[in-house]
Amino acid sequence: MAPPSKLFVTDLDTPPHPIQLHLIQLDKGPGGFEEKGRLKLSNVNNGKPFIVIVWVTTHPPCLKNLPQYELLAGLADQLESVNLIFLDYDPDRLKSEEMETLSKVFRDYYPPFPMYILDPQAPEAEHPRNQFESFIVPELIMLDPQRKATEHFVLNDRASFTKALTLISQPKSTNYH
Fold this sequence. Notes:
It is a single chain. The chain is α+β, with helices and mostly antiparallel strands and 177 residues long. The chain has helices spanning 60-69, 76-79, 95-105, 158-168; strands at residues 8-9, 22-29, 32-40, 50-55, 83-88, 115-118, 139-143, 149-154. The chain contains four helices and eight strands. Strand 5 (83-88), helix 3 and strand 6 form a beta-alpha-beta unit. The relative contact order is 0.26. Residues 1-12 and 172-177 have low confidence and may be disordered.
């Protein structure tokens, strides 16, 4: 599917209900990625908004944008005020295949933030592709503390990623704080 021509997907494309994700948090061990624990987004009640970066390890545009994700490390102070979910989204792969692919992609580099994959036991209705009218990877979704989508960016180039990071780095000036 071709990327949309507009950078920002309006709130008409964001669902009015809270987003629900069932995730597996990963940790990089000596043999590659290992399961650290399971997370259900609705169980995170710390009053912080969410930033969900969705990408796929087998998708060339996502891999092309990987170096840009390193820019997030420079926003460490601002990111302390949010729940950052870096989600490798590939519902068609088995968990073991997904973790193996991640280990290859991140052989020499590990992101400075938590890495997640979808829980294969999650209900089909709670997969991201079933919660958004438009779902194109790579993308960045901002959720308020109640998990309602407030902004939705397609990260198809450096300009879109930079625009999203600019919004993230503006403390208390946008509607997701």
